[in-house]
Amino acid sequence: MAGRAQPSGPAGSGGGAPGLLPLLLLLLSAAAIIPRGDGQNLVTEDVTVVEGDVATISCRVKNSDDSVIQLLNPNRQTIYFRDFRPLKDSRFQLVNFSNSELRVSLTNVSISDEGRYFCQLYTDPPQEIYTTITVLVPPRNLVIDIEKETAVEGEEIELNCTAMASRPATTIRWFKGNKELTGKSEVERWSDMYTVTSQLLLKVGREDDGVPVICLVDHPAVKDLQTQRYLEVMYKPQVRVSQNYPLQGLTREGEPLELTCTAFGKPQPTDMRWLRVDDEMPQHVVVSGSNLLISNLNKTDNGTYRCEASNAVGKSHADYMLFVYDTTATTEPAVHGTSVPPTASTEALPTVQLSNASLAFRPDSRAGEDGAIRSVDHAVVGGVVAVVVFAMLCLLIILGRYFARHKGTYFTHEAKGADDAADADTAIINAEGGQNNSEEKKEYFI
Hints:
Blueprint (H helix, E strand, L loop, with lengths): L19 H14 L7 E3 L3 E4 L4 E8 L5 E5 L5 E4 L10 E6 L3 E6 L8 E8 L4 E10 L4 E6 L4 E2 L3 E11 L4 E6 L2 E3 L2 E7 L2 E11 L8 E8 L2 E9 L2 E13 L11 E10 L4 E6 L9 E3 L2 E4 L8 E8 L4 E8 L46 H37 L18 H7 L16
Parallel strand pairs: 2-9, 11-19
Antiparallel strand pairs: 1-3, 3-7, 4-5, 4-8, 6-7, 8-9, 10-12, 12-16, 13-14, 13-17, 15-16, 17-18, 19-20, 20-23, 21-24, 22-23, 24-25
């Protein structure tokens, strides 16, 4: 930038006091020509820009009087003087120039461009105002590290999400499916950049298998930046026994019974077997894979039948309680099947540590049989009680009539006539049964 010309003294003057008068007159005339800036002011705004984008700096003048506007960088180097660019940096481009505004764009902004930029207005006295450029740097990498690629249900696993080289420091949020979880974050600063690591401890169950765990970034330089990992959880079999035939009604003697065992687990169960609890399996029972068939039911088949399934994680089972009715049974149960208290095995195979969680269904073949038995038993018991009460009443009536007929005073033939005697001796003499009448003594049988 060209400096202002300095006035010199008249030729031949010696630089003494007489030479000061022309200089003073020159300064006064110059002051009258240079605009003063009375009533003028500069306006600008701070700029926030993402690294690599374009920043626009605007220096505006209110109540302009054609004063010169200049833009300087943080090192006080002139970027633009009016519409002239002394600084040899092609990233700065003139967007608009007029007496009231100087607007300049800066392309491909980097961290080194951050700082204060000065707008100057050549008035008397000069005016100056600064604008601040803030550069945002989004995370360069967002990575989830998981402690175990495959976990067993009930285990607690550790996940770490790292957002590297951001400015300012980012905020990390965790989600499992649509549910937000809470992690623990640590921030490290390297020069002007920040690296944030968030740790999440998660106890997994079989319901978490295939569910995404999402690491989401909150940062002013980026929106919807996230990464995710899908959980892979191994779990013990889930076992269920279903009755194929008869579909409804009682399991009666002479009829067939068909059961099917289904099991789901991860990995898929490879070992499945049927057994009879607390007894041997009847010889006429046919087991084919997951199916159990009894072609001709009899009461010796009564008992609990168990289907067991196992995989690399552990073993589970489901029970089916069978009660065989007589062929004459006609009472249909209101609800087919009585649940058996869960007794799922938590036994683990030696190669894999098991979790405590276990789930198994316990269907039962006793299709309302307890209710049917109770109704039959109540009817029988009621009939027996009625018969007993009736018999006791009849017995009481007969005994009462018998005692009523035989109640009173009884006399023998020997005592007849004794009631009219004056004394005992006379009564004996006068008695029909006395010695005088002994020959006429007779016996009567009733």
